Amino acid sequence: MAGRIIGVDIGTSLTKAVVFDDAGVSIVDACAPSEVHHLPGGRVEQDLEQVIGTVATVVREVTARLDEPVAALALTGQGDGLWLRDAEGRPVRPALSWLDGRANSLVAKWQAEGVAREIYRRTGSGVFPGCHAPLLSYLDKHEPESLDRAAVAGYCVDAVVQRLTGEITVDVSDASLPFLDPVTRQYDEGAIEACGLGHRRGLLVEPAPGRSVFRLNRTGAELLGLPVGLPVTAGPFDLPASAIGAGVREPGDGILTAGTTLACQVLTRDVTWDREGEPAGMFLATPAEADYLRAMPAMVGTAGIDWICGLLGIGVEQIGGLLAESTPGAGRVRALPFLSASGERAPFVDASARAQFAGLSLESTRADLVRALCESIAYAARHCFEAAGLSGTLYACGGGVRSAEWTQIFADVLGRPIVIPGDPGVGARGAVLTAAESLGQPFDVELWAANSRTVRVRPENADVYQQGYREYTESLESARALWRL
Length: 485
Hints:
Keywords: Carbohydrate metabolism, Kinase, Transferase, Xylose metabolism
InterPro entries: ATPase_NBD (IPR043129), Carb_kinase_FGGY (IPR000577), FGGY_C (IPR018485), FGGY_Carb_Kinase (IPR050406), FGGY_N (IPR018484)
CATH class of one domain: Alpha Beta
Strand content: 15-25%
Family: Belongs to the FGGY kinase family.
GO molecular function, one term: kinase activity
Largest sheet: 7 strands, mixed
Number of helices: 16
Strand order of the largest sheet: 16-17-15-14-20-21-22
Distance between the termini: 61 Å
Pfam families: FGGY_C, FGGY_N
Helix content: 25-40%
């Protein structure tokens, strides 16, 4: 196939388009910000039209700078949330973000009444406030007219696909949480009924077969400035796309995404789970039918770093220097990093989870505070990977790994080397690799994976972080008891 595939990653706050050469190195890229509206009551919403506008902006920009024809468009983007639209793809209300916390109390109620555990027994997925089930249930009670007007209860990527191609579809990765049976890759009707949503079943689109290909219609072609009929692929969403783009290929391999949230994923071909265990995490279906990612996407991440920067009146670029000023163990300052207004979703679910700092004294410095928070997020990653079953090579991506000091903390706390892909656009890479395979366009997997570096463990810090992790888990256990009061 002649021409290049444009990869588009539609993130929560930024949409990025990237074109790669035959070795998997980006040659053209463009980005455009998306608006995220934080409203009273923990509500977080986005405007579908504005998001689609960012897609048009970045695609047109890279196309104008590309010296070769465009062969296809490969989409990925944020998952979860609730993107309601009518049969023509028009939004019936602003999209509810995966960050949304309006259903916090409903999730707590489902946990107390056993609804969350019933869903987990059936699907292996925990529910959290920003996923489909509680958001649909909340609107069904408080805003039923929006559901009445909707034809589709979908996600960000398939909302964009509908506008560009006219197709009403959903990738199986997006559909994975919380209703999909990972064994059959079909919705579990009992899980839907357990949420009281049987009467809204028609809003859920059946997952498309893996590696499905769509085509730009006239509306999409005019929007993007590309030819009618251009192939379009849609998925997987950004978490599994990043795993594919980073090089996760063998069972037991994992990827740490240090972004707004901390996504920890491990590749597996075993879809059995302890049905009586902690109802958290999820099985994310990938384009390969035998492969799943056991995902523990924690709500902690770089958003916490932004918070402490604002609190201390410093810039993000100062974080590395402050980490270097404080020694491993942060001068005995300890933290729990749960700063999200919607609590935590992995490796446990608790909408009331909140952050704390302990061990402060008059001798504590702002460097100690920063390091304690960064170390606590690394401890959260270790907690997630222990739950997900990490045993192989660990890859990492996201804005957090741009900090050499913080990446070193992750490696030391996790006790294993971390492979960092040379190109930061791993979500778009994964989407492009999926599109190339779907279209029969050959590529060299090993060559694409070769552009990387490895962060080694510093063994001299092992004892400090082993003790730190023990204290972290003990503090977390005590805090969870208090959150229930």
